[in-house]
Protein backbone atom coordinates (compact mmCIF):
# COMPACT_ATOMS: atom_id res chain seq x y z
CA UNK A 1 0.00 0.00 0.00
CA UNK A 2 1.36 3.40 -0.89
CA UNK A 3 1.15 5.77 2.00
CA UNK A 4 0.56 9.19 0.56
CA UNK A 5 1.07 11.80 3.21
CA UNK A 6 0.99 15.54 3.27
CA UNK A 7 2.89 17.02 6.12
CA UNK A 8 4.18 20.52 6.45
CA UNK A 9 7.65 19.22 5.63
CA UNK A 10 7.04 17.45 2.33
CA UNK A 11 6.88 20.72 0.50
CA UNK A 12 8.96 21.01 -2.63
CA UNK A 13 11.16 24.05 -2.85
CA UNK A 14 9.92 25.45 -6.09
CA UNK A 15 7.43 24.70 -8.79
CA UNK A 16 8.68 24.12 -12.31
CA UNK A 17 7.96 27.21 -14.36
CA UNK A 18 6.75 25.15 -17.31
CA UNK A 19 4.11 23.50 -15.19
CA UNK A 20 2.88 26.87 -14.01
CA UNK A 21 2.86 28.09 -17.60
CA UNK A 22 0.72 25.10 -18.58
CA UNK A 23 -1.98 26.37 -16.21
CA UNK A 24 -2.27 29.47 -18.35
CA UNK A 25 -2.55 27.56 -21.63
CA UNK A 26 -6.38 27.56 -21.76
CA UNK A 27 -6.26 31.34 -21.57
CA UNK A 28 -3.65 31.92 -24.28
CA UNK A 29 -5.97 33.95 -26.54
CA UNK A 30 -6.99 36.18 -23.68
CA UNK A 31 -3.31 36.67 -22.95
CA UNK A 32 -2.68 37.68 -26.57
CA UNK A 33 -5.47 40.26 -26.31
CA UNK A 34 -4.05 41.46 -23.00
CA UNK A 35 -0.64 41.93 -24.60
CA UNK A 36 -2.10 43.83 -27.54
CA UNK A 37 -4.09 46.17 -25.29
CA UNK A 38 -1.03 46.72 -23.10
CA UNK A 39 1.10 47.63 -26.11
CA UNK A 40 -1.53 50.20 -27.10
CA UNK A 41 -1.55 51.49 -23.53
CA UNK A 42 2.26 51.73 -23.49
CA UNK A 43 2.27 53.59 -26.81
CA UNK A 44 -0.35 56.04 -25.52
CA UNK A 45 1.81 56.52 -22.43
CA UNK A 46 4.96 57.55 -24.29
CA UNK A 47 3.19 59.83 -26.75
CA UNK A 48 3.23 62.75 -24.33
CA UNK A 49 7.01 63.24 -24.01
CA UNK A 50 7.20 63.67 -27.78
CA UNK A 51 4.40 66.23 -27.58
CA UNK A 52 6.21 67.97 -24.70
CA UNK A 53 9.35 68.22 -26.83
CA UNK A 54 7.43 69.88 -29.63
CA UNK A 55 5.69 72.25 -27.23
CA UNK A 56 9.03 73.38 -25.76
CA UNK A 57 11.00 73.48 -29.01
CA UNK A 58 8.33 74.77 -31.38
CA UNK A 59 4.98 75.90 -30.00
CA UNK A 60 6.39 78.05 -27.15
CA UNK A 61 9.20 79.79 -29.09
CA UNK A 62 6.82 80.38 -32.02
CA UNK A 63 4.10 81.57 -29.64
CA UNK A 64 1.67 79.56 -31.76
CA UNK A 65 -1.69 79.17 -30.01
CA UNK A 66 -3.05 76.66 -32.48
CA UNK A 67 0.02 74.44 -32.16
CA UNK A 68 -0.10 74.58 -28.35
CA UNK A 69 -3.81 73.65 -28.38
CA UNK A 70 -3.15 70.79 -30.76
CA UNK A 71 -0.15 69.43 -28.84
CA UNK A 72 -1.63 69.94 -25.35
CA UNK A 73 -4.92 68.44 -26.59
CA UNK A 74 -2.94 65.46 -27.87
CA UNK A 75 -1.40 65.03 -24.43
CA UNK A 76 -4.85 65.04 -22.81
CA UNK A 77 -6.27 62.53 -25.32
CA UNK A 78 -3.23 60.25 -24.94
CA UNK A 79 -3.58 60.32 -21.15
CA UNK A 80 -7.31 59.52 -21.39
CA UNK A 81 -6.71 56.63 -23.77
CA UNK A 82 -3.97 55.24 -21.53
CA UNK A 83 -6.32 55.44 -18.52
CA UNK A 84 -9.16 53.61 -20.28
CA UNK A 85 -6.82 50.93 -21.58
CA UNK A 86 -5.44 50.56 -18.05
CA UNK A 87 -8.88 49.58 -16.81
CA UNK A 88 -9.30 47.14 -19.70
CA UNK A 89 -5.97 45.43 -18.96
CA UNK A 90 -6.81 45.18 -15.27
CA UNK A 91 -10.09 43.49 -16.09
CA UNK A 92 -8.52 41.13 -18.62
CA UNK A 93 -5.73 40.09 -16.30
CA UNK A 94 -8.18 39.51 -13.47
CA UNK A 95 -10.35 37.34 -15.68
CA UNK A 96 -7.30 35.27 -16.61
CA UNK A 97 -5.99 35.14 -13.05
CA UNK A 98 -9.34 34.12 -11.58
CA UNK A 99 -9.78 31.46 -14.26
CA UNK A 100 -6.44 29.91 -13.34
CA UNK A 101 -7.28 30.10 -9.64
CA UNK A 102 -10.63 28.44 -10.15
CA UNK A 103 -9.03 25.62 -12.14
CA UNK A 104 -6.44 25.12 -9.41
CA UNK A 105 -8.94 25.12 -6.56
CA UNK A 106 -11.22 22.66 -8.31
CA UNK A 107 -8.24 20.53 -9.33
CA UNK A 108 -6.97 20.33 -5.74
CA UNK A 109 -10.43 19.62 -4.31
CA UNK A 110 -11.16 16.92 -6.88
CA UNK A 111 -7.81 15.29 -6.27
CA UNK A 112 -8.38 15.28 -2.53
CA UNK A 113 -11.79 13.71 -3.07
CA UNK A 114 -10.06 10.82 -4.82
CA UNK A 115 -7.67 10.20 -1.95
CA UNK A 116 -8.31 7.15 0.19
CA UNK A 117 -9.69 7.22 3.71
CA UNK A 118 -6.22 6.31 4.94
CA UNK A 119 -4.81 9.58 3.62
CA UNK A 120 -7.32 11.58 5.66
CA UNK A 121 -6.55 9.63 8.82
CA UNK A 122 -2.92 10.67 8.37
CA UNK A 123 -3.51 14.34 7.52
CA UNK A 124 -4.56 17.19 9.77
CA UNK A 125 -7.79 18.67 8.46
CA UNK A 126 -6.50 22.22 8.82
CA UNK A 127 -3.52 21.39 6.64
CA UNK A 128 -5.83 20.68 3.70
CA UNK A 129 -7.92 23.78 4.35
CA UNK A 130 -4.78 25.82 4.41
CA UNK A 131 -3.59 24.44 1.08
CA UNK A 132 -6.87 25.43 -0.51
CA UNK A 133 -7.46 28.72 1.29
CA UNK A 134 -4.03 30.17 2.13
CA UNK A 135 -1.87 28.76 -0.64
CA UNK A 136 -4.26 29.14 -3.52
CA UNK A 137 -5.38 32.44 -2.00
CA UNK A 138 -1.75 33.58 -1.86
CA UNK A 139 -1.10 32.57 -5.45
CA UNK A 140 -4.34 34.26 -6.42
CA UNK A 141 -3.13 37.61 -5.23
CA UNK A 142 0.20 37.18 -6.93
CA UNK A 143 -1.08 35.76 -10.20
CA UNK A 144 -3.87 38.23 -10.69
CA UNK A 145 -2.02 41.33 -9.61
CA UNK A 146 1.36 40.29 -10.86
CA UNK A 147 0.15 39.10 -14.23
CA UNK A 148 -1.36 42.49 -14.94
CA UNK A 149 1.57 44.29 -13.39
CA UNK A 150 4.14 42.38 -15.46
CA UNK A 151 2.33 43.01 -18.66
CA UNK A 152 1.42 46.63 -18.06
CA UNK A 153 4.67 47.72 -16.48
CA UNK A 154 6.85 45.56 -18.69
CA UNK A 155 5.27 47.05 -21.77
CA UNK A 156 5.39 50.56 -20.29
CA UNK A 157 9.09 50.21 -19.47
CA UNK A 158 9.80 48.81 -22.92
CA UNK A 159 7.87 51.64 -24.53
CA UNK A 160 9.88 54.20 -22.56
CA UNK A 161 13.11 52.44 -23.56
CA UNK A 162 12.21 52.41 -27.24
CA UNK A 163 10.94 56.00 -27.15
CA UNK A 164 14.15 57.12 -25.43
CA UNK A 165 16.25 55.50 -28.15
CA UNK A 166 14.10 57.04 -30.87
CA UNK A 167 14.21 60.50 -29.27
CA UNK A 168 17.94 60.59 -28.69
CA UNK A 169 20.07 57.48 -28.62
CA UNK A 170 23.10 59.26 -27.18
CA UNK A 171 21.20 60.48 -24.12
CA UNK A 172 19.59 57.03 -23.86
CA UNK A 173 23.06 55.42 -23.85
CA UNK A 174 24.17 57.69 -20.99
CA UNK A 175 21.21 56.49 -18.93
CA UNK A 176 22.31 52.88 -19.33
CA UNK A 177 25.09 53.57 -16.80
CA UNK A 178 22.68 52.98 -13.96
CA UNK A 179 21.46 49.59 -15.20
CA UNK A 180 24.12 47.47 -13.44
CA UNK A 181 23.31 49.28 -10.20
CA UNK A 182 19.69 48.52 -10.76
CA UNK A 183 20.15 44.82 -11.27
CA UNK A 184 22.51 44.30 -8.36
CA UNK A 185 21.65 41.58 -5.87
CA UNK A 186 18.51 40.48 -7.68
CA UNK A 187 19.31 36.81 -7.60
CA UNK A 188 20.24 36.50 -3.96
CA UNK A 189 17.10 38.33 -3.05
CA UNK A 190 14.90 35.86 -4.96
CA UNK A 191 16.15 32.82 -3.07
CA UNK A 192 15.76 34.51 0.31
CA UNK A 193 12.22 35.53 -0.51
CA UNK A 194 11.27 32.03 -1.63
CA UNK A 195 12.44 30.66 1.68
CA UNK A 196 10.48 33.26 3.58
CA UNK A 197 7.36 32.48 1.56
CA UNK A 198 7.65 28.77 2.25
CA UNK A 199 8.12 29.40 5.94
CA UNK A 200 5.14 31.69 6.04
CA UNK A 201 2.81 29.17 4.36
CA UNK A 202 3.91 26.44 6.77
CA UNK A 203 3.16 28.68 9.70
CA UNK A 204 -0.20 29.66 8.23
CA UNK A 205 -1.06 25.97 7.78
CA UNK A 206 -0.09 25.35 11.40
CA UNK A 207 -2.33 28.13 12.62
CA UNK A 208 -5.26 27.04 10.44
CA UNK A 209 -4.90 23.47 11.68
CA UNK A 210 -4.80 24.60 15.29
CA UNK A 211 -7.92 26.75 14.82
CA UNK A 212 -9.69 23.93 13.03
CA UNK A 213 -8.90 21.40 15.74
CA UNK A 214 -9.26 23.51 18.84
CA UNK A 215 -12.28 25.59 17.83
CA UNK A 216 -14.35 22.67 16.53
CA UNK A 217 -17.25 21.58 18.74
CA UNK A 218 -15.34 18.51 19.91
CA UNK A 219 -12.15 20.53 20.47
CA UNK A 220 -13.91 23.24 22.48
CA UNK A 221 -15.67 20.61 24.55
CA UNK A 222 -12.39 18.90 25.35
CA UNK A 223 -10.52 22.11 26.16
CA UNK A 224 -13.31 23.42 28.40
CA UNK A 225 -13.84 20.20 30.33
CA UNK A 226 -10.12 19.65 30.83
CA UNK A 227 -9.55 23.33 31.63
CA UNK A 228 -6.87 23.65 28.95
CA UNK A 229 -8.02 26.83 27.23
CA UNK A 230 -5.10 28.83 28.60
CA UNK A 231 -2.60 26.38 27.10
CA UNK A 232 -4.34 26.45 23.75
CA UNK A 233 -4.33 30.24 23.77
CA UNK A 234 -0.63 30.21 24.61
CA UNK A 235 0.07 27.77 21.81
CA UNK A 236 -1.85 29.97 19.44
CA UNK A 237 0.03 33.04 20.65
CA UNK A 238 3.35 31.28 20.06
CA UNK A 239 2.38 30.32 16.52
CA UNK A 240 1.04 33.79 15.85
CA UNK A 241 4.23 35.41 17.16
CA UNK A 242 6.33 33.24 14.90
CA UNK A 243 4.18 34.25 11.96
CA UNK A 244 4.51 37.93 12.83
CA UNK A 245 8.29 37.55 12.96
CA UNK A 246 8.27 35.93 9.54
CA UNK A 247 6.04 38.66 8.16
CA UNK A 248 8.42 41.27 9.51
CA UNK A 249 11.38 39.56 7.92
CA UNK A 250 9.41 39.34 4.68
CA UNK A 251 8.50 43.01 4.80
CA UNK A 252 12.09 44.06 5.41
CA UNK A 253 13.72 41.54 3.12
CA UNK A 254 15.68 43.29 0.43
CA UNK A 255 14.41 46.73 1.37
CA UNK A 256 17.95 48.17 1.12
CA UNK A 257 18.37 46.74 -2.32
CA UNK A 258 15.01 48.06 -3.40
CA UNK A 259 15.65 51.52 -1.98
CA UNK A 260 19.02 51.83 -3.64
CA UNK A 261 17.48 50.74 -6.92
CA UNK A 262 14.81 53.39 -6.63
CA UNK A 263 17.43 56.00 -5.77
CA UNK A 264 19.43 55.00 -8.85
CA UNK A 265 16.37 55.68 -10.98
CA UNK A 266 15.81 59.12 -9.58
CA UNK A 267 19.47 59.91 -10.27
CA UNK A 268 18.96 59.50 -14.00
CA UNK A 269 17.46 62.98 -14.66
CA UNK A 270 20.43 64.51 -12.83
CA UNK A 271 22.77 62.61 -15.14
CA UNK A 272 20.80 63.76 -18.17
CA UNK A 273 20.92 67.44 -17.07
CA UNK A 274 24.58 67.09 -16.22
CA UNK A 275 25.54 65.69 -19.61
CA UNK A 276 23.28 68.08 -21.50
CA UNK A 277 24.43 71.07 -19.43
CA UNK A 278 28.13 70.24 -19.84
CA UNK A 279 27.83 69.80 -23.60
CA UNK A 280 25.94 73.12 -23.85
CA UNK A 281 28.54 74.81 -21.64
CA UNK A 282 31.21 73.67 -24.07
CA UNK A 283 29.26 75.41 -26.80
CA UNK A 284 28.19 72.39 -28.78
CA UNK A 285 24.36 72.31 -28.75
CA UNK A 286 23.85 68.64 -29.41
CA UNK A 287 20.45 68.49 -27.69
CA UNK A 288 17.53 70.85 -27.97
CA UNK A 289 16.11 72.06 -24.65
CA UNK A 290 12.82 70.39 -25.60
CA UNK A 291 14.58 67.07 -25.98
CA UNK A 292 16.20 67.35 -22.55
CA UNK A 293 12.91 68.28 -20.86
CA UNK A 294 10.98 65.60 -22.73
CA UNK A 295 13.67 63.06 -21.95
CA UNK A 296 13.57 63.64 -18.24
CA UNK A 297 9.74 63.65 -18.29
CA UNK A 298 9.84 60.33 -20.02
CA UNK A 299 12.38 58.84 -17.67
CA UNK A 300 10.30 59.88 -14.70
CA UNK A 301 7.67 57.61 -16.20
CA UNK A 302 10.07 54.76 -15.77
CA UNK A 303 10.02 55.02 -11.98
CA UNK A 304 6.56 53.56 -11.46
CA UNK A 305 6.95 50.54 -13.77
CA UNK A 306 10.48 49.88 -12.59
CA UNK A 307 9.39 49.97 -8.96
CA UNK A 308 6.51 47.64 -9.76
CA UNK A 309 8.77 45.34 -11.71
CA UNK A 310 11.30 45.05 -8.95
CA UNK A 311 8.53 43.91 -6.63
CA UNK A 312 7.84 41.33 -9.27
CA UNK A 313 10.92 39.31 -8.39
CA UNK A 314 9.58 38.94 -4.87
CA UNK A 315 6.11 38.13 -6.09
CA UNK A 316 7.38 35.55 -8.55
CA UNK A 317 9.56 33.88 -5.92
CA UNK A 318 6.67 33.81 -3.47
CA UNK A 319 4.22 32.42 -5.95
CA UNK A 320 6.65 29.72 -7.07
CA UNK A 321 6.93 28.55 -3.48
CA UNK A 322 3.13 28.52 -3.17
CA UNK A 323 2.69 26.73 -6.49
CA UNK A 324 5.15 24.15 -5.16
CA UNK A 325 2.89 23.50 -2.17
CA UNK A 326 -0.19 23.27 -4.41
CA UNK A 327 1.53 20.85 -6.79
CA UNK A 328 2.46 18.72 -3.77
CA UNK A 329 -1.24 18.12 -3.27
CA UNK A 330 -1.95 17.50 -6.95
CA UNK A 331 0.93 15.00 -7.07
CA UNK A 332 -0.19 12.93 -4.09
CA UNK A 333 -0.52 9.36 -5.29
CA UNK A 334 -4.07 8.04 -5.13
CA UNK A 335 -3.76 4.75 -3.26
CA UNK A 336 -7.19 3.37 -4.08
CA UNK A 337 -7.40 3.68 -7.84
CA UNK A 338 -9.96 2.53 -10.32
CA UNK A 339 -8.53 0.43 -13.14
CA UNK A 340 -9.00 1.91 -16.60
CA UNK A 341 -11.00 -1.16 -17.64
CA UNK A 342 -12.94 -1.43 -14.37
CA UNK A 343 -16.32 -3.16 -14.55
CA UNK A 344 -19.75 -2.45 -13.23
CA UNK A 345 -22.08 -5.07 -11.80
CA UNK A 346 -25.36 -4.94 -13.69
CA UNK A 347 -27.38 -7.58 -11.83
CA UNK A 348 -26.17 -8.14 -8.35
CA UNK A 349 -26.81 -11.14 -6.17
CA UNK A 350 -24.87 -9.71 -3.28
CA UNK A 351 -22.46 -12.49 -2.39
CA UNK A 352 -19.39 -11.33 -0.47
CA UNK A 353 -16.25 -13.45 -0.31
CA UNK A 354 -13.12 -12.61 1.60
CA UNK A 355 -10.30 -14.90 0.46
CA UNK A 356 -7.17 -15.23 2.61
CA UNK A 357 -7.02 -11.49 3.12
CA UNK A 358 -4.34 -9.86 5.27
CA UNK A 359 -4.03 -6.16 5.94
CA UNK A 360 -1.83 -3.75 7.83
CA UNK A 361 -2.09 0.03 8.11
CA UNK A 362 1.56 0.93 7.77
CA UNK A 363 4.35 -0.80 5.88
CA UNK A 364 6.33 -1.39 9.04
CA UNK A 365 3.52 -2.10 11.52
CA UNK A 366 2.19 -5.51 12.44
CA UNK A 367 -0.72 -7.14 10.61
CA UNK A 368 -4.10 -5.80 11.72
CA UNK A 369 -5.89 -8.63 9.90
CA UNK A 370 -4.36 -12.00 9.00
CA UNK A 371 -5.64 -14.80 6.74
CA UNK A 372 -9.27 -13.75 6.86
CA UNK A 373 -11.37 -16.17 4.87
CA UNK A 374 -15.17 -16.35 4.79
CA UNK A 375 -18.22 -16.20 2.55
CA UNK A 376 -21.44 -14.29 3.11
CA UNK A 377 -24.10 -15.89 0.88
CA UNK A 378 -26.58 -13.45 -0.72
CA UNK A 379 -29.32 -12.26 1.61
CA UNK A 380 -27.76 -13.68 4.79
CA UNK A 381 -26.39 -11.96 7.85
CA UNK A 382 -22.90 -12.41 9.21
CA UNK A 383 -22.06 -10.96 12.60
CA UNK A 384 -18.51 -9.92 13.48
CA UNK A 385 -17.72 -10.06 17.16
CA UNK A 386 -14.51 -9.62 19.04
CA UNK A 387 -12.84 -7.51 21.64
CA UNK A 388 -12.12 -3.88 21.00
CA UNK A 389 -9.22 -3.46 18.62
CA UNK A 390 -9.58 -6.98 17.20
CA UNK A 391 -10.04 -5.58 13.68
CA UNK A 392 -13.81 -5.63 13.09
CA UNK A 393 -14.06 -2.10 11.73
CA UNK A 394 -10.98 -2.60 9.60
CA UNK A 395 -12.50 -5.73 8.07
CA UNK A 396 -15.73 -3.87 7.35
CA UNK A 397 -13.75 -1.09 5.67
CA UNK A 398 -11.98 -3.63 3.46
CA UNK A 399 -15.34 -4.91 2.18
CA UNK A 400 -16.33 -1.33 1.27
CA UNK A 401 -12.86 -0.92 -0.38
CA UNK A 402 -11.91 1.97 1.83
CA UNK A 403 -8.61 0.07 2.05
CA UNK A 404 -7.15 -2.69 -0.11
CA UNK A 405 -5.77 -5.83 1.55
CA UNK A 406 -2.04 -6.36 0.94
CA UNK A 407 -2.59 -10.12 0.59
CA UNK A 408 -5.60 -12.10 -0.61
CA UNK A 409 -8.69 -10.62 -2.19
CA UNK A 410 -12.30 -9.65 -1.60
CA UNK A 411 -15.01 -10.31 -4.16
CA UNK A 412 -18.61 -9.34 -4.76
CA UNK A 413 -20.44 -11.94 -6.85
CA UNK A 414 -17.05 -13.43 -7.68
CA UNK A 415 -15.51 -10.17 -8.98
CA UNK A 416 -12.44 -8.79 -7.19
CA UNK A 417 -13.22 -5.35 -5.74
CA UNK A 418 -10.10 -4.06 -7.48
CA UNK A 419 -11.66 -4.94 -10.86
CA UNK A 420 -14.82 -2.97 -10.12
CA UNK A 421 -15.64 0.66 -10.75
CA UNK A 422 -15.57 2.64 -7.50
CA UNK A 423 -19.11 3.81 -8.23
CA UNK A 424 -20.19 0.16 -8.60
CA UNK A 425 -18.79 -0.62 -5.15
CA UNK A 426 -20.50 2.42 -3.69
CA UNK A 427 -23.78 1.26 -5.25
CA UNK A 428 -23.28 -2.30 -4.01
CA UNK A 429 -22.06 -1.73 -0.48
CA UNK A 430 -23.74 0.58 2.02
CA UNK A 431 -22.00 1.41 5.27
CA UNK A 432 -23.86 2.51 8.37
CA UNK A 433 -21.18 3.53 10.82
CA UNK A 434 -21.51 4.37 14.50
CA UNK A 435 -20.74 7.98 13.73
CA UNK A 436 -23.50 9.49 11.62
CA UNK A 437 -22.18 12.54 9.89
CA UNK A 438 -24.69 15.29 9.20
CA UNK A 439 -23.96 18.28 6.99
CA UNK A 440 -25.00 21.76 8.07
CA UNK A 441 -28.17 21.56 6.00
CA UNK A 442 -31.83 20.65 6.41
CA UNK A 443 -32.86 17.16 7.53
CA UNK A 444 -34.36 16.64 4.10
CA UNK A 445 -31.11 17.52 2.30
CA UNK A 446 -29.13 15.37 4.69
CA UNK A 447 -31.30 12.36 3.95
CA UNK A 448 -31.31 13.06 0.26
CA UNK A 449 -27.51 13.14 0.17
CA UNK A 450 -27.71 9.34 -0.07
CA UNK A 451 -30.02 9.44 -3.09
CA UNK A 452 -30.26 12.87 -4.75
CA UNK A 453 -33.01 11.76 -7.10
CA UNK A 454 -35.33 10.58 -4.30
CA UNK A 455 -38.69 12.34 -4.14
CA UNK A 456 -39.97 13.92 -0.93
CA UNK A 457 -42.43 11.05 -0.62
CA UNK A 458 -39.61 8.50 -0.86
CA UNK A 459 -37.58 10.35 1.75
CA UNK A 460 -40.55 10.41 4.10
CA UNK A 461 -41.26 6.71 3.48
CA UNK A 462 -37.64 5.89 4.36
CA UNK A 463 -37.83 8.03 7.50
CA UNK A 464 -41.02 6.24 8.52
CA UNK A 465 -39.43 2.83 7.96
CA UNK A 466 -36.43 3.97 10.01
CA UNK A 467 -38.82 5.02 12.83
CA UNK A 468 -37.61 8.63 12.76
CA UNK A 469 -40.41 10.37 10.81
CA UNK A 470 -42.51 11.23 13.87
CA UNK A 471 -39.57 12.85 15.55
CA UNK A 472 -38.65 14.90 12.48
CA UNK A 473 -42.18 16.28 11.98
CA UNK A 474 -42.15 17.28 15.66
CA UNK A 475 -39.10 19.54 15.08
CA UNK A 476 -39.65 23.31 14.85
CA UNK A 477 -39.35 23.32 11.08
CA UNK A 478 -39.95 19.66 10.38
CA UNK A 479 -37.89 18.30 7.50
CA UNK A 480 -36.49 21.79 6.86
CA UNK A 481 -34.82 22.03 10.27
CA UNK A 482 -31.13 22.71 9.85
CA UNK A 483 -28.92 20.14 11.53
CA UNK A 484 -25.23 19.30 11.58
CA UNK A 485 -22.33 20.49 13.68
CA UNK A 486 -23.94 23.86 14.44
CA UNK A 487 -27.63 23.05 14.00
CA UNK A 488 -30.16 20.94 15.86
CA UNK A 489 -28.31 18.21 17.71
CA UNK A 490 -29.85 14.76 17.42
CA UNK A 491 -29.17 12.20 20.10
CA UNK A 492 -27.09 9.10 19.35
CA UNK A 493 -30.11 6.85 18.81
CA UNK A 494 -31.75 9.44 16.56
CA UNK A 495 -28.65 9.84 14.48
CA UNK A 496 -28.46 6.09 13.95
CA UNK A 497 -32.01 6.04 12.69
CA UNK A 498 -31.22 8.93 10.32
CA UNK A 499 -28.31 6.89 9.02
CA UNK A 500 -30.62 3.93 8.53
CA UNK A 501 -33.14 6.10 6.67
CA UNK A 502 -30.33 7.28 4.41
CA UNK A 503 -29.33 3.72 3.69
CA UNK A 504 -32.93 2.69 2.97
CA UNK A 505 -33.03 5.43 0.35
CA UNK A 506 -29.78 4.26 -1.13
CA UNK A 507 -30.98 0.65 -1.07
CA UNK A 508 -27.68 -1.20 -1.58
CA UNK A 509 -27.76 -5.03 -1.90
CA UNK A 510 -24.92 -5.36 0.62
CA UNK A 511 -25.06 -3.69 4.00
CA UNK A 512 -22.28 -3.14 6.47
CA UNK A 513 -23.63 -2.20 9.83
CA UNK A 514 -21.48 -0.95 12.67
CA UNK A 515 -23.85 -1.26 15.57
CA UNK A 516 -23.62 1.42 18.20
CA UNK A 517 -21.73 0.10 21.19
CA UNK A 518 -23.38 2.51 23.59
CA UNK A 519 -26.48 1.27 25.34
CA UNK A 520 -29.79 2.91 24.45
CA UNK A 521 -32.90 3.13 26.60
CA UNK A 522 -35.45 0.41 25.99
CA UNK A 523 -37.81 2.41 23.84
CA UNK A 524 -35.08 3.82 21.60
CA UNK A 525 -33.50 0.40 21.46
CA UNK A 526 -36.75 -1.06 20.15
CA UNK A 527 -37.13 1.71 17.59
CA UNK A 528 -33.54 1.27 16.39
CA UNK A 529 -33.92 -2.50 16.28
CA UNK A 530 -37.10 -2.22 14.22
CA UNK A 531 -35.32 0.16 11.86
CA UNK A 532 -32.36 -2.18 11.51
CA UNK A 533 -34.60 -5.18 10.88
CA UNK A 534 -36.31 -3.22 8.15
CA UNK A 535 -32.96 -2.28 6.65
CA UNK A 536 -31.34 -5.72 6.82
CA UNK A 537 -34.30 -7.55 5.32
CA UNK A 538 -33.36 -9.37 2.08
CA UNK A 539 -29.92 -7.79 2.13
CA UNK A 540 -26.52 -9.37 2.49
CA UNK A 541 -25.51 -7.97 5.85
CA UNK A 542 -22.20 -7.86 7.67
CA UNK A 543 -22.85 -6.50 11.15
CA UNK A 544 -20.23 -5.45 13.66
CA UNK A 545 -22.36 -6.70 16.48
CA UNK A 546 -22.63 -5.26 19.93
CA UNK A 547 -26.07 -6.60 20.70
CA UNK A 548 -27.11 -10.09 21.62
CA UNK A 549 -30.20 -9.94 19.43
CA UNK A 550 -28.08 -9.32 16.35
CA UNK A 551 -25.78 -12.27 16.92
CA UNK A 552 -28.63 -14.60 17.86
CA UNK A 553 -30.37 -13.93 14.57
CA UNK A 554 -27.21 -14.00 12.45
CA UNK A 555 -26.75 -16.87 10.01
CA UNK A 556 -23.06 -16.92 10.77
CA UNK A 557 -20.92 -15.44 13.52
CA UNK A 558 -17.21 -14.76 13.07
CA UNK A 559 -15.19 -14.26 16.23
CA UNK A 560 -12.13 -12.07 15.68
CA UNK A 561 -9.14 -12.01 17.97
CA UNK A 562 -6.03 -9.97 17.21
CA UNK A 563 -6.98 -9.84 13.55
CA UNK A 564 -7.67 -13.55 13.08
CA UNK A 565 -10.91 -15.48 12.88
CA UNK A 566 -10.69 -17.79 15.88
CA UNK A 567 -14.21 -19.24 15.83
CA UNK A 568 -17.13 -19.39 13.42
CA UNK A 569 -20.65 -20.79 13.47
CA UNK A 570 -24.17 -20.03 14.61
CA UNK A 571 -24.99 -18.71 18.05
CA UNK A 572 -26.07 -22.08 19.38
CA UNK A 573 -23.05 -23.88 17.97
CA UNK A 574 -20.66 -21.38 19.43
CA UNK A 575 -22.28 -21.28 22.83
CA UNK A 576 -22.07 -25.08 22.95
CA UNK A 577 -18.35 -24.89 22.17
CA UNK A 578 -17.59 -23.00 25.40
CA UNK A 579 -14.79 -21.15 23.65
CA UNK A 580 -14.02 -17.54 22.89
CA UNK A 581 -17.56 -16.66 21.87
CA UNK A 582 -18.99 -18.10 25.05
CA UNK A 583 -16.67 -15.78 27.00
CA UNK A 584 -17.57 -12.74 24.92
CA UNK A 585 -21.25 -13.55 24.93
CA UNK A 586 -21.73 -12.11 28.40
CA UNK A 587 -20.39 -8.70 27.26
CA UNK A 588 -23.08 -8.23 24.60
CA UNK A 589 -26.00 -6.07 25.57
N1 LIG B 1 -5.91 4.45 10.56
C1 LIG B 1 -5.25 3.58 11.34
N2 LIG B 1 -3.91 3.56 11.34
C2 LIG B 1 -3.22 2.69 12.10
N3 LIG B 1 -3.79 1.79 12.90
C3 LIG B 1 -5.12 1.74 12.96
C4 LIG B 1 -5.93 2.63 12.18
N4 LIG B 1 -7.22 2.35 12.43
C5 LIG B 1 -7.22 1.33 13.32
N5 LIG B 1 -5.98 0.97 13.64
C6 LIG B 1 -5.60 -0.13 14.56
O1 LIG B 1 -6.04 -1.35 14.02
C7 LIG B 1 -6.52 -2.20 15.03
C8 LIG B 1 -7.94 -2.66 14.72
O2 LIG B 1 -8.80 -1.56 14.81
P1 LIG B 1 -10.36 -1.68 14.50
O3 LIG B 1 -10.93 -0.33 14.60
O4 LIG B 1 -10.54 -2.41 13.22
O5 LIG B 1 -10.86 -2.57 15.71
P2 LIG B 1 -12.34 -2.89 16.16
O6 LIG B 1 -12.37 -4.35 16.40
O7 LIG B 1 -13.32 -2.36 15.20
O8 LIG B 1 -12.42 -2.11 17.52
P3 LIG B 1 -13.72 -1.43 18.23
O9 LIG B 1 -14.64 -2.54 18.58
O10 LIG B 1 -13.12 -0.79 19.43
O11 LIG B 1 -14.27 -0.45 17.26
C9 LIG B 1 -6.43 -1.42 16.33
O12 LIG B 1 -5.26 -1.86 17.00
C10 LIG B 1 -6.30 0.01 15.90
O13 LIG B 1 -5.51 0.73 16.80
TrEMBL record:
Membrane-spanning regions, if any?
Answer: 29-52, 64-88, 171-190, 270-295
Principal place of residence: membrane
Q: Which InterPro entries match?
A: AAA+_ATPase (IPR003593), ABC1_TM_dom (IPR011527), ABC1_TM_sf (IPR036640), ABC_transporter-like_ATP-bd (IPR003439), ABC_transporter-like_CS (IPR017871), P-loop_NTPase (IPR027417), Type_1_exporter (IPR039421)
- ATP-binding among the record's keywords? yes
Checking PROSITE patterns in the record gives: ABC_TM1F, ABC_TRANSPORTER_1, ABC_TRANSPORTER_2
For this UniProt record, the keywords arranged alphabetically read as follows:
ATP-binding, Membrane, Nucleotide-binding, Transmembrane, Transmembrane helix
**Which locations, inside or outside the cell, does it occupy?**
Cell membrane
Domain ABC transporter as annotated: residue spans: 352-587
* Residue ranges constituting the ABC transmembrane type-1 domain according to the UniProt record: 32-318
Looking up SMART domains in the UniProt record yields: AAA (SM00382)
Q: How does it sit in the membrane?
A: Multi-pass membrane protein
Q: Give the domain of life.
A: Bacteria
Q: What molecular functions are annotated in GO for this chain? A: ATP binding
Q: What is this protein called?
A: ATP-binding cassette subfamily B protein
Instruction: Identify the species of origin.
Output: Kribbella orskensis
Amino acid sequence: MTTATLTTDTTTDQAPVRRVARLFRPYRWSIVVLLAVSVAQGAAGVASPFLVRDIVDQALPQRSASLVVLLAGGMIVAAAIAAVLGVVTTRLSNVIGQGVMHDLRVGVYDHLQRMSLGFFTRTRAGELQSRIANDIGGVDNVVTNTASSVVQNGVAALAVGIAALVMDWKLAAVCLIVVPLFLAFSFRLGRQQRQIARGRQKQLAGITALVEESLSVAGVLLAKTLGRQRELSDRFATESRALSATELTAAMSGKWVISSRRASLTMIPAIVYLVAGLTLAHGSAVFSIGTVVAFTTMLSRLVAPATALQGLGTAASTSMALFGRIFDVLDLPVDIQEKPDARSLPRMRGEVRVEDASFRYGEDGGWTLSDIDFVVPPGTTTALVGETGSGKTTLAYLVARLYDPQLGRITIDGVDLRELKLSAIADAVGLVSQETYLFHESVLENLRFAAPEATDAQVIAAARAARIHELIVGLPEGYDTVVGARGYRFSGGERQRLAIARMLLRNPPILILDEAASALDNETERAVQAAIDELARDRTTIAIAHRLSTVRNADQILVLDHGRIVERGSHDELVARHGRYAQLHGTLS
